[in-house]
Specification:
By secondary structure, the protein is an alpha+beta fold. The protein has 13 helices and 15 strands.
Length: 464
């Protein structure tokens, strides 16, 4: 039942909707232009050209790579604050220029926020600033074409990932960011504890250390959601997660971050490394092709030489660890006890002219949860996928499903729950982790991983 006061409210909002014209995002204006229609846009001035009778402004609102040309007759009252970088609200009619270019002939120009370029604004019009320079201004770098294009590609790539798994009937799981386990066991974890001394004093218990007082156990920022996915997979089937992960590595290389996003999957009833490879290859080709289809203009803005890689039409190469070592040895590169290094990974990709799966790894180089190979108990059924520019972009394995073998390898009693998964209705599973930022490096041809996300964190750098 609708009461009279509700009718009054509905009438009020209806009137507001009639008299208040909503502005259009530039992407929709360019996609479906309605010549002659009065249109409102809001955005930022990317360039300004003053001529005899008109002022021409290129305006972009971040919704797409393209800019909308605004034609401002000089007889209009123009705000002195209309400059490069200023934010504006413009009303006018859409038309076509003599050359057929879509433009908006303004009848009202309102400067929302001025931009005094000489007062410390770091970016100049008609200047291509290098990524290293842009990186110094994290709070402003979304104003640059380069970063804005990258963030649109990142958004699209994320959507295509979710679409892929929805179509394949995987269930998206939100795994915890706070965890009591170090999945990879490398000790590269960030410890979590209260910063408030009063809270620590109030919660302190006899026999507890400061770093376990809040949760009752040592707690870390997650390095992986894999173990939690394994638990869910054994009750719900195929699952995946996409979220932030953290590594306390003392590395400032072009390929490492302290905080990054990881796509991780766990596949139920997966009993062969080949099944795992097929899912990875199918996923990567899908998201690369879809993102190139939806964001070609953005990819061109990031790198004008960016072309569709030939390997998208090829099957990925598979090499055993021993075969990879033999190829490297023939090229005069010896693999140490620590395994294949970054230079050698890129050499293998170049040799094969396609992404390369390295499979059947020595178990001393891999994690405790990886399944011992039935062909050779010195190896595990694990894989790394190597790609151009970055080397490893995916790591995965079949999971050890033998209770006794896993029990012998379990690194801590704190993981007794993980062992218990093998007791009750256990199934064979396999899974993989894919670094979102490294995928973006390959897709966009971005040399430095710090330029693949809006606010990168690395040792000695956590600005904002």
């Amino acid at each position: 039942m609708i009461f009279m006061k509700d009718c009054v409210k509905l009438s009020y909002y209806f009137k507001i909707g009639v008299v208040s014209k909503k502005y259009s995002i530039i992407a929709s204006v360019l996609e479906t232009p309605k010549i002659g229609e009065v249109t409102e846009v809001k955005g930022w001035v990317k360039s300004l050209r003053v001529q005899k009778e008109f002022i021409f402004a290129d305006v972009n609102d971040g919704s797409c790579a393209q800019k909308l040309q605004i034609v401002i007759p000089k007889n209009l009252k123009i705000d002195d604050n209309l400059t490069y970088g200023s934010s504006v609200h413009i009303t006018g009619k859409l038309s076509k220029s003599p050359r057929g270019q879509l433009e908006l002939v303004a009848d009202n120009v309102n400067v929302i926020g001025k931009c005094v370029v000489l007062d410390g604004y770091p970016f100049n019009p008609r200047t291509i600033h290098p990524p290293e320079y842009i990186r110094q201004f994290l709070h402003l770098r979304s104003r640059t074409n380069y970063t804005a294009a990258l963030l649109r590609v990142r958004h699209a790539l994320t959507n295509h990932i979710h679409n892929y798994f929805v179509k394949k009937n995987y269930i998206h799981i939100h795994t915890p960011i706070l965890t009591s386990n170090d999945c990879e066991g490398a000790g590269e974890v960030f410890k979590v504890q209260p910063d408030n001394e009063e809270t620590v004093k109030a919660m302190m218990q006899e026999g507890k250390s400061v770093d376990s007082v809040y949760f009752g156990t040592k707690t870390y920022l997650t390095v992986s959601g894999q173990l939690h996915l394994e638990a869910i997979c054994r009750g719900m089937g195929n699952v995946y997660t996409l979220g932030p992960t953290f590594r306390a590595e003392n590395s400032k290389s072009r390929l490492h971050l302290s905080e990054f996003y990881m796509l991780e999957t766990e596949i139920a009833f997966c009993d062969s490394i080949e099944k795992l490879q097929n899912v990875i290859e199918d996923l990567l080709k899908y998201i690369f092709i879809e993102t190139r289809n939806t964001n070609e203009a953005d990819l061109f803005l990031i790198d004008k030489s960016n072309k569709t890689p030939e390997w998208l039409n090829k099957q990925f190469v598979t090499l055993s660890y021993d075969e990879a070592r033999s190829i490297l040895s023939a090229k005069g590169l010896d693999v140490t006890e620590e395994g294949i290094n970054k230079e050698q990974e890129l050499t293998l990709v170049d040799h094969c002219q396609a992404p390369v799966f390295i499979v059947h790894w020595p178990k001393n180089l891999k994690s405790f949860y990886m399944k011992e190979s039935p062909l050779d108990n010195n190896n595990v059924d694990a894989l790394d996928l190597l790609a151009p520019l970055t080397g490893e972009i995916v790591g995965g394995s079949l999971r050890e499903d033998d209770y006794e073998k896993l029990n012998a390898k379990l690194p801590s009693d704190a993981l007794s729950w993980y062992l218990e998964l093998r007791k009750f209705g256990n199934i064979p599973t396999g899974g993989f982790g894919l670094g979102l930022e490294r995928i973006l490096q390959v897709l966009c041809n971005i040399p430095n991983i710090k330029d693949t996300l809006p606010f990168p964190r690395w040792p000695h750098n956590c600005n904002m």
